[in-house]
Amino acid sequence: MTINQQPKAAMDAANSLPDPGALEGARRATGDASGSAAPMRAAGTDSEVVPRARRRQFSNAEKRRIVEAADRCIKPGEIGALMRREGVYSSSLSTWRRQREAVDLAALAPQKRGPKSDPDRADALHIAQLTRDNERLKSRLDKAMLVIEVQKKVAALLGHTLDDNGERT
User: What is the pLDDT of residues 44-81, one digit of tens each?
Assistant: First the structure.
């Protein structure tokens, strides 16, 4: 098995350079910060606490503006460039389009005619109905109690004794 010695030789040559600062610019340009230079930290920051990423939230005006801009795109690749520029995924764009269509359809739907239902008014009507029912039932109860009293008196005149349930004892 043959091992290619050229990359190792190039690495040895890079390590044997007399000026380590010469590679600093190359490391910064390529993002390779594994050299001898320690990464810079801001004073007073805690390295143990990692800030949580927050989801980006779009206002309704931003959503409307982005969807309208996407609708105006006619050339190939324009929508992709718009989404990259705005930081929007295609799924978000399609969801916003569906929401816009649903709102448009709801606005065009026929409206119910007549007075609108008011929850406070409905509650007041319900309470009034229950009050009328309660008064009607009280009236019927009073009449039934009167009939029971008359039956007790008739039973007493005939010599039958009845208990409170109306049964003979």
Answer: 565 677 778 888 889 999 999 999 999 999 999 999 99
SS3 of the chain: helix, strand, coil, percent, to 5: 60, 0, 40
Question: How far is 101 from 95, CA to CA, in rounded Å?
Answer: 10
Nearest one of 13, 15, 37, 16 to 25, comparing CA atoms: 37
pTM of the predicted model as reported, rounded to 2 decimal places: 0.40
Tell me the two tokens of residue 23. 């590679």
Q: How confident is the model at residue 117 (pLDDT cuts 50, 70, 90)?
A: confident
Q: Which residues lie closer than 8 Å to 27 by C-beta, 6 or more apart?
A: 33, 34, 35, 37
Cβ proximity of 66 and 58 under 8 Å:
yes
Q: Map out the domains of the chain as residue ranges.
A: 60-108, 137-169
Pair 69, 82: CB distance under 8 Å = yes
